[in-house]
Amino acid sequence: MESNIESVYESVVSGEMQATANKVQIALDSGLSANNILQNGLISAMGEVGKLFEEGEFFVPEMLISANSMKFGLNLLRPYLVAEDVQPLGKVLLATVQGDLHDIGKNLVGMMLEGSGFEVIDMGIDVKPEDLIEAVKEHKPDIVGLSALLTTTMVNMKTAITMMEDAGMRDGVKIIVGGAPVTQDYANQVGADGFGKDASEAANIAKQLML
Ligand code: B1M
User: Fold this and answer.
1) Which end of the chain is flanked by fewer CB atoms within 10 Å, N or C?
2) From ligand 1's centre to the CA of 109, what distance in Å?
3) Residues 68 and 139 in one domain
């Protein structure tokens, strides 16, 4: 790996936020393309972070710090990516379902998705299905991601999916679901296309759904 790219990669994996931005700037100044820095520095580092999380080497705090470092680098890189006309892997509309105020896991999922090259539109918490439908019309996402942390609110995933079906928009969009009480069985029951047990798996499923 080119040494300036390797520095970006290492600062993301070790969770050094300001250093990541500095290393991205150095890599840009050395003449490397923004896309090269994104793919081989930031995205591949977040791939490694996801792997370390799945292997039990990293826990949520480490993953959050790495994801924040990736964001520092990405913020700096964004105008250069626009200038190079680099297209995201896909667009994900993310929401915590109606009645549910938990967002720590959902935010982590959003960060892992961004770290995998997706554009993420985060609608926040307690999102009504009507608002979700309006947002799907407006943003035309490839994937809708629904998060729920309560057994009492996970049923609102089904409500949202049914309303999307009734609005005739279900075929044009993939849906992934997750959150502590959600299982693969439940995802099947509500008619989702994918389930992620954690943020890393959610990003991997999203990538598969784009193939
Ligand atoms: Co709440 N809460 N809470 N809470 N809270 C739980 C979820 C609970 C299990 C605690 C308990 O009783 N042991 C329990 C739910 C019980 C149940 O439904 N069976 C509970 C309860 C009861 C409540 C209240 C009702 C308490 C009350 O007021 N009496 C209330 C409800 C408010 C509401 O939502 N309407 C409430 C409130 C809160 C706080 C506001 C205080 C706070 C949330 C702050 C916030 O999110 N900004 C809070 C917290 C922090 C928790 C616990 C302690 C931690 C949740 C968390 O952030 N985990 C939680 C207990 C627990 O889980 N140990 C609990 C860390 C996070 C990284 O993990 O969110 O699971 P998690 O996300 C993971 C995966 O689930 C997955 O990836 C993430 C990262 O790997 N994932 C997805 C998540 N979304 C995904 C989406 C995907 C794919 C994967 O695709 C789109």
Assistant:
1) C
2) 14
3) no
Nearest atom of ligand 1 to the alpha carbon of 103? 46
- Residue to mutate, 66, 102, 132, ligand 1, most ligand atoms under 8 Å from C-beta: 102
Which residue's alpha carbon is at the smallest distance from atom 5 of ligand 1?
102
- Per residue in 10-34, pLDDT (tens digit) is 999 999 999 999 999 999 999 999 9
**Which pLDDT tens digit goes with each residue over 50-91?**
999 999 999 999 999 999 999 999 999 989 998 999 999 999
Domain that holds residue 34: 3-83
Residues 76 and 123 in one domain: no
Q: Both 170 and 104 in a single domain?
A: yes
* Other residues' Cβ atoms within 10 Å of the Cβ of residue 111: 24
Q: Where are the alpha helices (DSSP H) in the chain?
A: 3-13, 17-29, 34-36, 44-54, 60-83, 104-115, 129-139, 155-166, 184-190, 199-209
Query: Domains in the chain: how many in total?
Result: 2
Residue 93 has a CB neighbour count (10 Å cut-off) of 24
Do both 120 and 181 map to the same domain? yes
The enclosing domain of 173 has a CATH number of 3.40.50.280
User: Which residues, other chains included, contact 49 with Cβ-Cβ below 8 Å and sequence gap of 6+?
Assistant: 12, 13, 58, 62, 63, 66, 67, 115, 200
